[in-house]
Design a protein that fits this description.
The protein has 727 residues and is an alpha+beta fold. The protein is built from 29 helices and 21 strands. A hairpin with a 5-residue loop joins strand 7 and strand 8.
Length: 727
């Protein structure tokens, strides 16, 4: 296996790269690798240079560009020799040096455990992918050759490497659509992770192998006759037995024996046009019996890894069950090589890494998700959490749902509307109040199914995530975002509590004018790890630092002006204006004016208000944002204010929009009852958008009480919007 020379690589490369300059660069890279690895040997006993040569040959089979082949030749130089990043960059450019750096293992770093070492290594690889996706292509070629020479490793190392391959590298190859490499990675890994099952399935496949191959050849001849008779031209047909790991996975997931697996045999029909793909499908179904629920159209709806094909499972007249895949030649190339087929090297074309990365992100939705992970989550998570998130949320997706606009979103099995909302956008997740799936209202913990059409309902005034959401969310990404929201929310509550305690302590010390600054917090409480004024307030809110200590330190550093204290006290007293007015509204200069509250906008204490002088009806009080003010004479408006010791309650009209729910009214009344809020009128209607519109009038003391009511109503999942009427 290790016996290989530069001529073997040159033979592969020369089939598609003919530019003398690029061929010379590749040769120089080989000579540098050979020089740097001279005297080093693989555990198999062969010279080390054979490994990078094999990696480069695997890459050449994918028709990658010269830079990627050079990176394959040099990928172990920084790790295993005295070669530096700067040396590679000077000779072959920054792109190559960065790629090599992206696949270099972190042997020089110190880790607390082997698990931590693996996590750090995987995290660096995934982050490097975000900068240049060619990194993973080189890494996959490196891993593939290592698996081909795995016999020389110890049993423990073999199993660890193979499990790592099945968890990280094979899923990545799948997401990149690189079927041939994925299949070999899986089969070789299964051989060491579950040798008994590998041997058992291998024996089952080999048993009656000649009969199976004979059956395939017979069916191929039948199909050729059918297509020829129906005037289908320019087609080719291949037959194969599926790879061992895919059979093992189906047996495990479906709890079936080998004999119960339908599609061990697969026949691939390659035609010239998409139209002919569907024509051939019709002919296959006409001549063979289709197995129900086994047809999949990946041409109309491609897989996220760009795979396109028609799949159907049929039964021949002799009772043989087999799968048929129908695709064009271009689709077949993408199915075999994956994303590599899209960037296959073409000479004399200008290359831009940035443009290529953008185009790939546009084509591969999951790659765009990885870029988002790199941007949002990499700095907020430890390496293991980050890698687990990518593996669970991106590499193992198996459920495909649609947005109302027809976009396909892929998610892990068991994902909920909550996971979908956070995958689309963090703010969408934070404001979700419900979902409509296939025109039916569902709960947030509904398990999404393949083909679901999902509409997320939001409310910008929503109270946001609760700890219960952590039980509903299945993806690491959604859980991470929910925790971040809750942590910030908790900090905000502690911050406000700390400020209030400090304010009350200052008032208790007769200090009404003070100003705490950042420097005061750092200088006096730096030893408590306080780096900002907000940190100080949070620790006061937690009870870690006493507000009495803070105020005492402040008073000790300030000369308190007794006249200033007196002035503040007088100002505070002057603000306490009482009134016997039934409305609670004060009109400067008038002792007992005729005042009426407008019924259109229902102003309440805390609102900014204006008065409109009517002819014969006195002064009508409006909310300053009342829509009816636009049609009134501006010359008749006057400024008003509320008194400060009002005891009465005021009516206010709310308009509530919610998803139809039989328990909705009961939930609303429970909330109002728990807050001791009275209801004076209620009107309920349903519209054609599956929404319930509720107009309700309640009695509250002021805007503070109203805000509390709205905040608690917004916790009802079905409610998507609440606002006051006519404002």
């Amino acid at each position: 296996m290790d016996k290989v020379s530069y001529n073997d690589l040159f033979t592969k490369v020369n089939t598609y790269i003919h530019n003398p300059f690029e061929l010379e660069r590749i040769k120089r890279a080989y000579l540098l690798a050979e020089e740097k690895h001279r005297g080093q040997f693989r555990k198999s006993g062969g010279p080390y240079i054979c490994h990078p040569l094999h990696v480069a040959i695997i890459l050449a089979e994918l028709h990658v560009g010269p830079d990627t082949i050079i990176a394959g030749l040099l990928h172990d130089c920084i790790e295993d020799t005295n070669t530096t990043h700067e040396e590679i960059e000077a000779q072959f450019g920054k792109d190559v040096a960065d790629m090599v750096d992206g696949v270099t293992k972190l042997t020089k770093m110190k880790f607390s455990s082997l698990e931590q070492k693996q996590a750090e290594n995987h995290q660096k690889m995934l982050l490097a992918m975000g900068k240049d996706i060619r990194v993973i292509v080189v890494k996959l070629a490196d891993r593939l050759h290592n698996l081909r020479t795995m016999d020389s490793q110890s049993p423990e190392k073999r199993e660890r490497i193979c499990r790592e391959t099945l968890e990280i590298y094979a899923p990545l190859a799948h997401r990149l659509g690189m079927f041939k490499i994925k299949a070999e990675l899986e089969d070789r890994s299964l051989r060491y992770t579950n040798p008994e099952k590998y041997k058992e399935i291998s024996a089952d496949i080999n048993e009656n192998k000649s009969a199976r191959l004979g059956n395939i050849e017979h069916i191929i001849e039948q199909i050729k006759e059918i297509l020829t008779e129906e005037n289908i031209k320019d087609f080719s047909i291949k037959g194969r037995v599926k790879n061992i790991f895919s059979i093992y996975k189906k047996m495990t997931n479906q709890h079936k024996d080998f004999e119960e697996i339908y599609d061990v045999l697969a026949i691939r029909i390659i035609v010239d046009t998409i139209d002919n793909c569907y024509r051939v499908l019709g002919l296959i179904h006409a001549y063979y019996t289709p197995v129900p629920k086994r047809f999949k159209d990946y041409i109309a709806v491609p897989k996220p890894n760009l795979y396109q094909s028609l799949h159907t499972t049929v039964i021949s007249s002799s009772g043989l069950t087999f799968e048929v895949q129908i695709r064009t030649e271009e689709m077949d190339k993408v199915a075999e090589l994956g994303i590599a087929a899209h960037w296959a090297y073409k000479e004399n074309l200008a290359y831009s890494k940035e443009k290529e990365q953008f185009e790939i992100a546009q084509k591969l939705k999951w790659y765009a998700d990885l870029l988002q992970f790199n941007e949002e989550d990499a700095d907020d998570s430890d390496a293991k959490t980050f890698v687990d998130s990518v593996r669970k949320d991106i590499l193992t997706t198996s459920v495909y749902v649609y947005t109302p606009t027809g976009d396909v979103i892929d998610l892990p099995k068991g994902a909920t509307p909550l996971d979908l909302a956070y995958k689309i956008h963090t703010q969408l997740g934070n404001t979700i109040v419900g979902a409509i799936v296939n025109k039916h209202i569902v709960s947030l913990n509904y398990e999404l199914q393949n083909g679901d059409i999902v509409s997320i309902r939001t409310n910008k005034n929503s109270a946001g995530p609760t700890t219960n959401w952590l039980k509903i969310a299945k993806t690491s990404h959604a859980r991470h975002k929910i925790k971040a929201f809750l942590n910030k929310q908790n900090r905000d509550v502690l911050l406000a509590a700390g400020k209030k305690l400090v304010e009350e302590e200052f008032q208790a010390n007769k200090v009404f004018s003070y100003e705490l600054k950042e420097d005061f917090a750092k200088e006096n409480f730096g030893k408590n790890n306080i780096t900002s004024l907000d940190d100080l307030y949070v620790d006061i809110g937690k009870g870690i630092i006493s507000e009495k200590t803070v105020v005492a330190k402040y008073i000790g550093t300030k000369k308190i002006d007794s006249e200033e204290i007196m002035r503040k006290s007088i100002e505070k007293t002057n603000k306490m204006i009482s009134t016997n007015s039934e409305t609670g509204v004060v009109v400067e200069g008038l002792n007992n004016p005729q005042i009426k509250l407008a019924v259109c906008c229902c102003p309440i204490p805390g609102d900014k208000i204006v008065g409109y002088v009517t002819k014969g009806s006195g002064i009508v009080v409006h909310h300053e944002n009342c829509k009816n003010l636009e049609s009134l004479d501006k010359n008749r408006l006057l400024n008003l204010r509320w008194a400060t010791d009002i005891k009465r309650k005021y009516p206010v009209s709310l308009r509530i929009t919610a998803m139809q729910n039989v328990q909705l009214l009961g939930e609303i009344m429970n909330v109002l009852s728990s807050l001791n809020v009275q209801t004076s009128s209620l009107n309920v209607k349903n519209n054609l958008n599956l929404e319930t519109i509720i107009k309700i009038k309640i009695l509250v003391a002021n805007t503070v009480e109203l805000d509390k009511v709205i905040a608690n109503l917004n916790k009802i999942t079905a409610i998507s919007d609440i606002h006051r009427e006519n404002i």
